[in-house]
Amino acid sequence: MRPTPFIIGSLLAVISVASAAHDHDHDDHEHEHEHGHEHESLSAHEHGVGSLNLVVDGGEVAIELVSPANNLLGFEHLPASNADKAKVKALQAQLNDADSLFVFPAAADCSVEEVELSSPLFETEDGHEHEHEHSDESAESHADIQAHFHFNCTQEAALDQIQVALFSAFPGTERLLLQAIGPKGQQGGELTATQNLIRF
Ligand SMILES: [Zn+2]
């Protein structure tokens, strides 16, 4: 595994903080969507909404998706039944197939280098790390899924846009709050199924 350039990690950290602040700005007027379970939430987390942080540094593209598990999976409890475990495995396979989730210009010659997935829902297969948790509590808690994708593009001059195909892959995802740093600077905004193109 080649080391991730320090600059990409730093920039992702910066824009993650920026998007967390952005979430706070929306707390007041999105309150109505959250009532009922907001007080139980472990993180500021609204179903249907995720965040996408993206850095393009030359031909290197780092993308971080942070999403409520519900958006990708349809549930957030720790998988106990065989059916739920199968859904979690299928989701991991789908996220690892990153070339189908992000569409780059063919001329840029981009390929996925690395995918890292992290979620409480992905850590239960061996069973012994979570003996201290109570299953009755986990059934009520909210869980996020984080995915880091690293792509390398050999023709960086042709990398002028990225289409985000997460909406068709995961219909439970309605909006992604975007923070991106591209060749021409920083941009933010909101991606949806009909506005899923990031242009640089
Ligand atoms: Zn939730």
Automatic annotation (TrEMBL):
InterPro entries: ZrgA-like. Transmembrane segments: none annotated. It comes from the Bacteria. The keyword Transmembrane helix does not apply. This is DUF2796 domain-containing protein. Residues 1-20 form the signal peptide. Coiled coil: none annotated. Residues 125-142 have a biased composition (Basic and acidic residues). Residues 21-45, 122-142 are annotated as: Disordered. Keywords: Signal.
